[in-house]
Design brief:
It comes from Mucuna pruriens. InterPro entries: At1g61320/At1g61330-like, F-box-like_dom_sf, F-box_dom, FBD. Pfam families: F-box (PF00646), FBD (PF08387). This is F-box protein. The chain is 26% helix and 23% strand. By secondary structure, it is of the alpha/beta class. Among the domains are: 127 residues; 60 residues. Helix 6 links the parallel strand 2 and strand 3. The radius of gyration is 27 Å and the shape is globular.
Length: 421
């Protein structure tokens, strides 16, 4: 009798399809805060939004619009909102995003748009900028599709004035052709991040003339021939994976500087950063082999006065330093010694040494172990040999042989620990 009772209980639990919906009993403000942390497609699939969003004005502080889903039908998870054919799923999702923006009545402070190059999001952005006067943080990202060219920034000219209240602005994969009067257009902008941007010299110089900009990041961008940054407000600067003929940085209040994979002659990279406290410099973070990217020690030779004694002492207030050097090379070690002589305030020193050989023992094939080795294979450009000693079976380790190598000289050796078997 006891066995049959247990069996009956198990059958009831197994056939139970839905658990109690506790979220629907929460106050509106709590619900909208939870939803604001979700991407929009995840939010609309919840029973909360499907049952209550039409009749209740909702307030969010953050929205994320992954419009890259526009090319695929949202399928059954949107059938409770728009009962349309699957062929019209693209329009259904677009209407949903637009309707949610019009329905929003709160003080939205942060928003992110992600879309494909051939999707027009100009109308949605115009509504957003005109309606959300308190918007402080905006991210626009165009997804990369093969060799398709970067589209123009999807903002209409008559809505440019609404950007003047932004404090943080991030752009990914666009061609910038907006007015060059950047310093007057973005009067309150504190943080600007440009990644994979096509931009001309005139517009680029307008950006650098901004008197309010404190944090500036420029990654993998092109269209300009030289970089001249002269700003008293800038406190953080990152230049990464750029190809230019001349770089001059004159920022007396700059505190953090990151330079990585810059294709620029060492003698043409001039620094005027007397109050710098944190410095990161890497020559091979994203480019495995290139004669156009000067090594870190060559840059240090110019900056420390090893080659030119008239150079200013730019590292006298430096407290943290992170560089990639091979200390087995006498010349590279010498450049470091000269830097240390001029850095009397240095407290933290991090030296990134190129990884050549890795020996891993006790491999069991767990997810974190596999992910770690994949990271080494796909990111280490100079690694030559990885030896993996498995506890029992080579099944999981064999899958690593098909992973694309970042290093052309990599040799992977798989072994089984005989003592473990």
């Amino acid at each position: 009798m006891e066995k049959s009772t247990k069996k009956a209980i198990m059958m009831v639990d197994h056939n139970k399809k839905y658990s109690p919906d506790f979220f629907n009993h929460l106050p509106d403000k709590v619900l909208w805060f939870i939803l604001s942390l979700l991407p929009i497609d995840e939010a609309v699939r919840t029973s909360i939004l499907s049952k209550r969003w039409r009749s209740t004005p909702f307030t969010l502080i953050l929205m994320s619009y992954p419009l890259t889903r526009l090319t695929s039908s949202p399928g059954s998870h949107l059938e409770f909102i728009f009962n349309l054919d699957k062929e019209k799923g693209v329009y259904r999702y677009n209407i949903l995003c637009f309707t949610l923006m019009k329905k929003h009545v709160g003080n939205l402070t942060s928003c992110r748009f992600a879309h494909f190059p051939f999707i027009d999001v100009t109308a949605c952005l115009s509504v957003l900028l005109e309606q959300e006067k308190g918007l402080k943080d905006l991210t626009l990202e165009c997804q990369s599709i093969g060799t398709m060219s970067k589209p123009n920034l999807p903002i209409r000219f008559n809505t440019w004035n609404y950007l003047s209240a932004l404090e943080s602005f991030e752009l990914v994969r666009y061609t910038l052709k907006y007015p060059s009067s950047f310093e007057t257009l973005f009067r309150k902008l504190r943080t600007l991040k440009l990644k994979e941007i096509q931009i001309g010299d005139e517009i680029f110089n307008g950006i650098l003339r901004s008197t309010s900009l404190e944090n500036f990041t420029l990654l993998q961008s092109s269209g300009f021939t030289k970089i001249e940054i002269k700003s008293s407000s800038l406190k953080f600067l990152e230049l990464n994976f750029l190809c230019v003929s001349h770089i001059e940085i004159s920022t007396p209040n700059l505190k953090v500087l990151v330079l990585a994979s810059l294709s620029c002659p060492a003698k043409n990279l001039v620094l005027g950063v007397q109050n710098l406290s944190e410095f990161h410099c890497y020559s091979n973070q994203q480019i495995s082999t290139s004669s156009h990217v000067p090594k870190t020690h060559k840059l240090l030779e110019y900056w420390t006065g090893l080659l030119e004694c008239k150079r200013e002492k730019i590292f006298r207030n430096l407290s943290s330093l992170s560089i990639d050097l091979d200390l087995n090379n006498v010349r590279e070690a010498l450049s470091l010694s000269y830097l240390l002589r001029t850095s009397s305030c240095l407290q933290t020193l991090k030296i990134v040494i190129p990884l050549n050989v890795v020996h891993i023992k006790g491999f069991t094939g767990k997810d974190l172990e596999v992910d770690f080795i994949k990271y080494l294979i796909t990111r280490s450009t100079r690694i030559k040999k990885i030896t993996i000693i498995c506890e029992s079976s080579l099944d999981e380790a064999n899958k690593l042989l098909s992973v694309n190598n970042a290093s052309s000289k990599l040799f992977i050796q798989l072994m089984v620990d005989k003592r473990a078997t």
